[in-house]
Amino acid sequence: MSAVAKSPSSLAVAVRTEQSVVFLAAEGVLDANNSAELRDSVMNAMVDAPSAVIVDVTALQVPDDAAWSIFVSARWQADTRPEVPILLVCGGRAAREAITRSGTARFMPVYATEKSAIKSLGKLARRGFRHAQAQLPANLTSLRESRQLVREWLTNWSKPRLIPVALVVVNVFVENVLEHTGSDPLVRLECDGPTATIAVSDGSGAPAVRLPSPPKGIDVSGLAIVDALSRAWGSTPTASGKTVWAIIGPENQL
C-alpha cells in the first residue's frame, strides 16, 4: 500500500491494488482547495483499466455536501474510462445520505463496507453497460450530427423508445455549447439497464443554469425542456470545463 499526503490541504489518499481492483482510502478534510487532488487520484486509478475502483471515504470530512460532486467530475473527465465502475464505501449513515443528496449516487453506488462493495462487483460486471462518444466541431453541423449519432447508438443498443427524448436533450446541450462557449462539444451516451445518460462536455467552466421561469406564459427555454423530459439533469465542473448531463428512462416520453 502506498499513501500520498497532500500538504497543506490536510488530505491523504492511500492506494492499493488487489487482483484487478484498485482501492483508494481518503482521509482528511475535503474542500475547494484539495478537491482537484482527490479527483486526480480517482482518475489516475482508472488509467490502466482496472475492473473497478473502490474509494473508501469513511475517514473523509466533507463540510459542504456539494464537494461530493468531485467524484462525478472524475467520472466525466474526457480521458477517464467510463466502462470502469467507481464504487464508494462510507461507514457513516449521515455521510451516505449526504452523498445521495448531492446526486453523486446517481453515477456510482455507495456501500457501508468494503466487503459489500467487493461482493457487488460480479453483478456490476454483468450489467450490460454501453457507452459511446464523439468529439464534434464547433459549428452548426454538429447539431445534426449529434442527433444522428445518438439515434444510431440507441438503435444499435435496442433502445428505440429512448430515441425521441434523447434527440431533444442532445440538441439542447449541443446548441448551448455552440451558442455560449464556442468550444468543440464532446457528446457522450451511456446506457445502463433501462436508462440512458446523455452528456455533452465543453471547454467553459461557467455552469449551465436554467433561467428563472417567466411570471406568465410557458417556459420554453432549452434547459426547462430538459428538466421536464428527464429523471435528473445537472452541470458538473471538470478539469477542462464542464459536463452537462441528463438521465432519461422509458417513462420519459414526448
From TrEMBL:
InterPro entries in UniProt: Anti-sigma-factor_SerPK (IPR050267), HATPase_C_sf (IPR036890), STAS_dom (IPR002645), STAS_dom_sf (IPR036513)
Chain ranges of the STAS domain: 11-121
Protein name: Sulfate transporter
Native organism: Mycobacterium riyadhense
Taxonomic lineage: Bacteria, Bacillati, Actinomycetota, Actinomycetes, Mycobacteriales
